[in-house]
Every structure is written in C-alpha cells, then in structure tokens.
Amino acid sequence: MKLQLPNPSLEDRILSHEQLDNLEEEEAGDRPKWDNKAQYLLSCIGFAVGLGNVWRFPYLCQTYGGGAFLIPYAIALVFEGLPLLHMELAIGQRLRMGSVGVWNSMSPFMGGLGVASLVVSFLVGLFYNMILAWILWYFFHSFQSPLPWSYCPLNMNHTGYVAECEQSSPVNYFWYRETLNITPDIESSGSLQWWLVLCLASAWCLVYICFIRGIETIGKAIYVTVTFPYLVLTIFLVRALTLSGASDGLIYLFTPNWETLKNPQVWLDAATQIFFSLSLAFGGLIAFSSYNPQKNNCERDALIVGCVNSFTSIYASIPIFAILGFKANENYNDCRNWNILKLTNAFNIGDENITLENYNHWFNHLNATDPLEVESLSLKTCDLQTFLDESASGTGLAFIVFTEAVIQMPGSQVWAVLFFVMLFSLGLSSMFGNLEGVLTPLLDLHMIPPWIPKEIFTGLICLTSFTVALIFTLGSGNYWLEIFNSFVGSMPLLIIAFFEIISVVYIYGINRFNDDIEWMTGRRPNIYWQATWRFISPFMLLVVFLAYVVIEAEKQPTYNAWNPDFVNFPLADVLHYPEWVSTICVLLSVLPVISIPLVALYRFLSFLKNYIMNRHNQNPYEH
Amino acid sequence: MLEKSLFLLCFSSALAKQLCAPDASDGYKVRLSIRTALGDQAYAWNEDELFLFRATLAFAMRNRISGQQFEVSNIIVCDETPRVSFWFVVTSPSNTSHLVDKEEVEEAIRKSRNRINSAFLLTDKTLEFLGIPPTLAAPVSPDTPPWLIVFGVVMGAVGAGIVVMLAFSVVQKKRKKDGKVVDEAVEEETRAKTTDNGAAGDGVYNMSFSDDERFTEM
Question: What stretches pass through the bilayer (chain B) (predicted)?
Fold first, then answer.
C-alpha cells in the first residue's frame, strides 16, 4: 500500500538505525532502563491487569450470557487489542521517548496526541487513586472482630438500630454513610471527610515510595504487586470452590446464552472492555517500552501481555462468581428460613420440625388446612435466580456485594484482608503505568530544570495529584468520581487510539514501521499484523467510537443518588445532572483531546508563517 | 372438708384459668426454640422444665420488687403449644386474684433476663418474650478506633521508607559526584600515558601539551 501522507524531515526528528546502534554503545546508563526483561513484562502486565479485570469482566460475562461472551471478547482481542498493543510497544521501543516525544517526532502536527495522553493519564490517575484510598479504608477496618460492615450501629438512645441502616443493610450503610458520608445529590458538596483525606494521603504516599525514582523503584515494587494478586486469587479459588453454592455461581457465570450474541450492545461492550482493559492510549505502555534495549522482541511481548490480561480476567471471574454463588445461596437459605420461622411461630409447630427439605410438604399441608392464616403471613417468594442476579460491577461489587459475602465466610477477617490487599496491589501496579505516562513525557521534553532531582519531581507530581484529588473526598466525591470515570476514562481514549494508529500507519509510514520492527526483532511482521494495522483495527476503532457516542448520547445524563429521605429508599434516587455539572462533563471529555487539533493548528500556522517569510526573503542568488 | 378443699382447688384453678388467657392484658407470650439453640443436646420440654420456668420468673419478680414473696404458684401458665410457647401472668402474692401490672413484669424480666436465659441455656433470640425486645448490647468501642492503629503502623512504615530512600539517593549522588571527579583525573593521566606509549614510533610526546588541553577544555 502506497498510501502515505507526506512527512518531510521525518529523518531529522528521529534517530536512524545506525544512530541507535551507536547510542547503545555510547550512552548506556544515561537513560534509565529495566534491570531485566521480567521487570518490563511484569510492569506491562501490571499496568494492563487492574481492577477492571476483577470487577468489570466477570460482571459483563454474567450479564451477557456467560460463556457466549467469550466469543466477542476473543474477537475484539485478536482484531483490536493485540494490534494496538503491539503498535504501542513497538513505537516506544523504536523512538525511545515518552508519548509526547514519540508523536512529536513522528510529525509535529501530531504532537497534540502526546499531550492528550499525558492529560488523560493525569486525570485518570486522580480518581483511580481515590479508589485505592477506599480500598485502604476497608483494609484498615478489616482488622476488627466483628467486621464493622456486618452489624448496624445503635441509634442515639440505644433503643434500636440507626434507621438508615435498618432500611437498607449494614453493608450499604457502612459504604454510603461511614465511608463516603455521601450527600443526597451532587450539588450539595458537603465538607472534606477527614478520614478519606487520611486514606488518600496514605495511598499517595504508598504510590510515591514505589514511584520515587521512576522505573528503578517501580521495577522492584512490581515483583510483589503483580504476583501477589495471582496468589490471592488462587487462595480464593481453592476456598471458594469448597463453599456451598459455589457451583450455582459458576454454572450461572459460564452457561452460554447464545441469544445475547445477536445484541449489538454485547459486541460494543466486548470491544470497549478489551480496549480499556489493556490500558491503551494512556502513553504508559509507550513509556515502559521506551526503556527497553533496542533489539527486543516486542511482538512476543505484546502477545504475552495481551493473553495474560485476558487469562487473568477469566481466571479472576471463577473465584468471584463462586463466592457470589455462595452468597446467593446463603441469602436464599436465609429467605427460606425466614419463611419457615414465620410458619412455625404462627402455627405453633414444634421447633425445627419444618426444615428446608420438607418445607414444601408442610407449606402445602398448612395452605390446605388454613389458607387465610398462611396468606396473612405474607411469606416471601424465595428464588435462587433472583439472588444470583443481584451481582454488581465496579465499586458496588467490591464494597457491597463481596463484603457481604465475606461476612458469611468463616474466618472473615482473613478473607477481607486478603481481598483488599489484592485489590490494592492490582490498582497500584496500574497506577504506576498512569504515572509513568505523566513522568516520562515531562522528563523527555526536558521541561524540568536539571537542578531538581527526580525524587523531588515525582514527589511534586504526587503532591499536585493529591491536592486536586481532594474533590473526591468531599461528601459528593463519589458522584464526581463516577463522572470522571465515565467521561475521562472512555471517549478520549478511543479518539487518541484512533489517531495513534492512523499516525503510525499513514503518517509515519507502515513500510518504515515494518522495517523498524524487522530491525528490532529480526522478523518482518506477518500478514495478520499488516491487515489489522492497516484496515481492521482503525475501522473497528471508528465503529466502536461512533457506536459509543450514539449510545451514550441516547442515554439520559442521570445518576443514582443515595438519599435516605427518598420515598423509595433504599432504592437509588435517579437524578439529572444540573447544568453546570453537564458542562463540566463535556469539558472533561473535550479537554484531553482538544490538544490534538490545537497543536496541529498551531504547527500549521507557524509552518505557514515560515513559508511566507521564506517566500519574502528568497535569496536573489538562488533564482 | 374434702369437698371444701376440692371446691377451692377447682375454684382456684378455674380462677387461674380465667386470669391467664391468650392475649391477656397483663400477660406475656413466651416462645422457646430449644432445638435451634442446642441442636443434638436439646432437652425435652416437660412439666419439670415448666416448673423451673415458673420458679425462675418468681425469682425475677422477687428480684425486682423487694419485700413481696413471690411463689411458684403466683406464676400462672396457660395455652401451651408444641412450639414450645405459652402465655403467663403473674398474680400478686398478697391478693391472688389481682394481677401484677404489665410494666412491672416487663421491668422484672429485663432486669433478670440474663439469669433467665442461662437457666435454660438459651439466648435472647431463642427465649423470646413477645413484647419485650431485648436490650441491645452497645458494641464495645475502644478509645482509639482500631483502624487508626493500622493506619498509623502502615504510614509509619511508609514514611520511614520514604526517608530512607531519599537519604540513600542523596548519599548515592554524592558518591557518584566524588567518583566522577576521581575518575576524570585518572582518565586524563592514563590517556596521556597511553598516547605516550603508542606514539613511540612518531617521536616523543610533549607532556606540556596535554596539560594545555585540560585548560582549554573549558
């Protein structure tokens, strides 16, 4: 394919292969590098494998017909995830700079891409660490017996339980009141919750100590933060499979429902899940691979990282759903036992005469003899399926559903501690990638005066992020976090990724890119990579982006508020965003990507200016 | 005589039956769930257990109202069911046809609830007095919330780690700077020496020029 946009003076901006060979000998030690290949791979895997693998994928799998969801997921991985991943790792390794430097060298007009990645990484890092702060809060509280989310506190005069807790549940109360102290709507901001500020500060300190010298310290930390979650998942797997009701959860998760494949929403969700799960377009992967030795097999790395990420998602969903099945089973038994107690008390039958096994027999007998009395009891209809459907994703899964399950497991404190440490490690290794996506471009642009040591600079980044993230510790913080999550962490990334692949294939030149890869790995990329890079992936990205925009535009901008004074409490109060909040939402989506056209325009204007000046000052001797 | 005592007995039991009835205004319903509480070690509910109950309740009344000698006969039980549940009322020892007020009975039971429970190896949940909710035990709240302790430990470790890392990097930088100056000096000398040896065939290398180089390298 000869389609390529004219890109003059590309060779001036990038190092040629010969220069790179010399670079390796001369300047070894100037640019930090990975101690060994394992560190690099673990960092990339850690960045890709995050909280989403644990609390988003199982939810999607279950909602979209279990085993059948794996098909669109695999297709999205093969045609969208792996090509983009390989591309990012390859250009980082070839051009040896962070995101801003890479796109600037490719073409000055695409410099805005790097800035966009930088802004997105920074903004996502803000709210992602708030989630880590919440996880820390729960972790700190897991060292008590009984666990604080297992009982309702007493009200003021000790006559009963707090009303809000009684109406909802202890787990909900602990999350919404004692942790978030959430306000009834986004407009009432409340005040800074000091306990959340403390947890946020400790989260940032923990991040700082690992991030203090860039990849030198990250490389040591990831040995623990990346391997520990797998250990915990295995422990949970073994424990979960021995719980009663685990098989119900697993069957529910994996039973394929082929009908869902006809729903286009499934394909869209699979594509977006793969895309966000692999942490593409953040610039972090480019930063990580820029510290590689030059002759490194990036193709194999991409395949490893992509496949490990998907494997982790599937592996994590097994214990999660086994435990959710256990919880559903417990709730189902509680429901039936409640019915049994009601019948026993009303009809004065001997204690424990009615059991779960002979319940139906007794019920029919009693209904036949005294149907009016039975009806007056208003017995609950207990359906296992309803309880199994009660799963959630995101913070709802971790802090409400799972914590409820943990209470019912013997030895709850141990499981709670293990679970929250696992979540924290998963999130921490993703934070490294986010922050590297901010640090490396700034370092490469030489924007920092050299007298500031790197430790101070990373400290400044952490301090700035902490200060801005204090909005999430307000009473309305959770609502703001949801906004950031939906508007920053979604559409801008799709736009950036689309422009990335267009830049590499059509502005940098796919032929030059193939040569680079051949020089780095010794093998020219095969037909699969060629086809996906040139047509399939950009096309898929475009379709996904358009579908995403259409679907999001159709949805009403509403949010679920927790309002104890709501008529239907504990159901969520569905409110509309006020005008100023909607404006902020739009700003958040637009701000990261506005740099792409702005920088292109700026460069174009200065190019025009130079061109006009050259025309004016043409050397008379050169006619 | 015999007829009189028989008549009195019948009369008193009839009167007792009248005083105690389900939904009596001054009575309470009691519900025991022995098998739920004790499982295999559950005892059978019989007349003797009922006697113990009445005795315990008499004790509770004595405990509450000092001076009045409540006897087992003052506790009247009726409407027993296989559940095990029954109603009871308490008659005043001075006047057996007069019932003790509901509130007094409630106070007495609340005060001695623990003793009544342990007499039967049951708990607040398995020995229910319908209408008398158990006093909720205030959860033990230590002076320092435990989460602050864990937070302090973690932050102490992290803070110490940060200080150590910063100190280590300062020391390392200093060492590198000193090392670099020493290295440069050594490099200059060896360079001059090697060129001296290598250029033996071309003539004698003038050391003074190498010194000049160092000055002009500014």
Answer: 147-171
